[in-house]
Amino acid sequence: MNHAIRADKFLLDADRTTWHDETLWFVREKRDRAVYAVPEFQELRELASQIKDHTLSRLDLYLQEFEAAAQANGVHVHWAADAAEHNAIILDLIRQQGATRIVKSKSMLTEECHLNPYLIQHGIEVVDTDLGERIIQFREEAPSHIVLPAIHLKKEDVGDTFHLHLGTEKGESDPQLLTEAARQHLRAKFLAGQVAISGVNFAVAETGGVVVCTNEGNADLGVNLAAVHIACMGIEKLIPRLTDLGVFTRLLARSATGQPVTTYTSHFTKPAAGKEMHIVIVDNGRTQQLGRPDFRASLKCIRCGACMNTCPVYRRSGGHSYDFTVPGPIGAILSPNIDMKKHRSLPFASTLCGSCTDVCPVKIDIHTQLYKWRQVLGEAGEIPASKKWSMKFMGRLLASARVYGLSGQFARQALRLLPHGLTHAASFNAWAVARELPEPPKQSFREWYQQQPKSVPQPQTPQVTV
Amino acid sequence: MSSASRNRILLAAQANKPAETPLPTVPDFGGEATAERFTAVLSSIGGTVVWLDGLGQLGSTLQQLFPEARNTASPLFDATVPIHADTPTHVLAEIDLAVLTGEIGVAENGAIWLPEANMLHRALPTITQHLALVLDHRRIVATMHQAYAQLPSTGSYGKFVAGPSKTADIEQSLVIGAHGARSLVVLLY
Ligand code: SF4
C-alpha cells in the first residue's frame, strides 16, 4: 500500500484532518516565535551544520574516541550492526540482571528496532514512560510523530484509552486529570523498574557521556531509580566537544516545540556507585547512508520534528500514512535507504515547496534530497506505472510548442463542454477530488498576445554585455 | 558478536565517510545576563523566582512558600528526612520538597545547572513533589554557550533544569506536573 492510499484513509474524516493540520501549524508558529527571539539563530544553524559535517567526516575516529572515554568512565559499550543485534544485546543485559520489569523513556531508535514487541515476546514487561508513548502503547499503535507521538489523538481518544486501561471515569477528557492519572500509574512503574532504557539526543566524543532531553523528567526518574541504565544511540548522535552542546541545545527545543529549552537536559557520564551503565551503539543502515553522497546529510538530523510540523503533506496525511518510524520529509529520505521497494512512494509525499529545508536547524537540504530520491527511484524502475507514463506523456507534450498549443485549445473547449460529473470523476482526475477546476479562459495567453496591436510600446530589451 | 560488529561499523564508517571538513569554533554571542531576563523567561515556562535578602532568610521563605511540606530534604538546613546516595526508593518517593543549590543560571532559557554533587541522591530532583533551587544571582550567564564554558566538566551526572516537569502530549494542552517535580521555585540571592 502506498502513501497516497494510506493518506486517503486519514482524509476520510475531514474535520479531524483539518484539526491535525491546525494543531501542527500551531506548533510551527510557536517555533517561529522562539526562533525570531534569538538574533543569531541563522548563525547557530550554520554552526550546527558544520559541526555535524565535520563529525561525519571523522565518524570512525570520533566513535573510537567516544568509546574509549566512556569505558574510562566505567561505562560498558556495545556495538550493534543492525536491529536484531541491538535487541539481542538488550535482552541479554536484562537477563543478566534477572530482571523482568523495564521502564523506557522515549527513543525513536528502539522504535526503529522494534524493541518492545521483541522484549514482550521474551516475557519482559516494557513500560514506555513518556506520556505520549504510553498512550499509544496502550492503544497498540505506533507513534505518528517523532516528538509528539500521540499528536493524531484527541483528548477524548485519550480519555477512552485511560478509562479502559487506568480506570479513569468514562467520558473524562480533561488533560490535567488524565495526566494526573498517568502520573500515579507511572510512578508505581518507576519505583518498580529494575532496568531503565533511554534514548540519546547527543553523545559527546570528548567526555564519553550522553545527553538526554525531556520535558517530563521520565528519563531521569527511570534511570536514577533502576540498577541498570541502558542508553541506545545511532552512530550519528555524536558531537565532538562538550561546548558543541551550547549550539545544539539552543536549537533543539526551539525548533521542536518552540520552547527555549527542554525542562531537563541531562548529562549521563558515569554510573552511580554500585550501579551499571551501558551504551549500545547502533548502525542499522547508517554507514550505508554515509556512503551515499547525495543523501548522507540526512545523518545530521537531530530529530526535532520541525520539518514534519511545517510540511503541508504531513499535516494533511498524518504520520501513520508514512508507515515508517520517522515520518514526514526526513523520514521520506531515510526510509528508501532502508528498503527502497517498500518505501518508494514516500519521496513523492512532498510538494517540494522547500519549507522543510527552511526550518531544519542543521540545514539538511531536505527537499533537494527528496527530488534526488525521485530520480534514483525512476532509474531503478520503482515509479508506479501511471506516474511513469503520464510523466512521459507530459514530457512529449511540453517539448513541442505545436502539440502544447493544440492540447491547450482542446482542454479549454473540453472543460467548457464536458459535464462536471465527468471532469471531476475521481478515477480520471484525482486532482479535482477536493478542488474546483479553474474557469477555462476563452483564449490562451499566446493567442491574446498575438492579437495585441503592434504599436504598443515594447519594453526595452536589456543590454547584455559579454 | 559485538566485537565483529564493532569492526564492521568502524570500517564501514571509515570507508564511506566524506573528505574531512573543519570543525568550526563557536563564538560567544554575548547576550543579556541579567536576573530580570532570567526571571522573565523562567516565569514564562512555569517556574517561579523569589528573591532572598540573604541565605539567612531561606527557612522563613520556605515556610511561607511550602506551608504543607511535611517531608523535606536538603543539605542547606535541618530538613526532616536525611537523604544520601543509598537512600532506598520508598523513602525518596515520600519527599514533598527538596531544596538544593543550583550552580549556574542561564538567562536566555531559564535553565539552572544542577550537578550530582548538589543532589544528595540522583533521583531526588525529579522524584520530589516540589523542587526549590537556591542560586547566587551573580552566577547568571546569558546563553548556553557561556554556561558550558564555565563547566569544568559535567561530572558523573548533572542536568540543566528549566522549570517544573510538564507535558503537552494530550492535544497539545500544557499540563504542569508530569512525572518529575510539580513545581520549581528558584530562590535568588
Ligand atoms: S531533518 Fe531537520 S527539521 Fe527534520 S527532524 Fe531532522 S533536524 Fe529536524
Automatic annotation (TrEMBL), chain A:
Lineage, top-rank taxon, reads Bacteria
Matching entries from Pfam families are given as: Fer4_8 (PF13183), LUD_dom (PF02589), LutB_C (PF11870)
Under the heading InterPro entries, the entry gives: 4Fe4S_Fe-S-bd, 4Fe4S_Fe_S_CS, FTHF_cligase-like_sf, Helical_ferredxn, LUD_dom, LutB/LldF, LutB_C, NagB/RpiA_transferase-like
Q: What UniProt keywords are attached to this protein's entry?
A: 4Fe-4S, Electron transport, Iron, Iron-sulfur, Metal-binding, Repeat, Transport
| MF terms in GO | 4 iron, 4 sulfur cluster binding; metal ion binding
Regions crossing the membrane: none
What protein name does the entry list?
Answer: 4Fe-4S ferredoxin
Region forming the signal peptide: none
Q: Does the keyword 4Fe-4S apply?
A: yes
| Domain named 4Fe-4S ferredoxin-type: residues | 291-321
One annotated GO biological process: lactate metabolic process
From TrEMBL, chain B:
Domain (LUD): give its ranges. 92-188
- Per its UniProt record, what Gene3D superfamilies does this chain match? NagB/RpiA/CoA transferase-like
Q: Which Pfam families match?
A: LUD_dom
Known InterPro entries for this protein? FTHF_cligase-like_sf, LUD_dom, NagB/RpiA_transferase-like
Residue ranges that the Swiss-Prot or TrEMBL entry lists as coiled coil: none
Q: What is this protein called?
A: LUD domain-containing protein
Which organism is this protein's natural source? Hymenobacter sedentarius
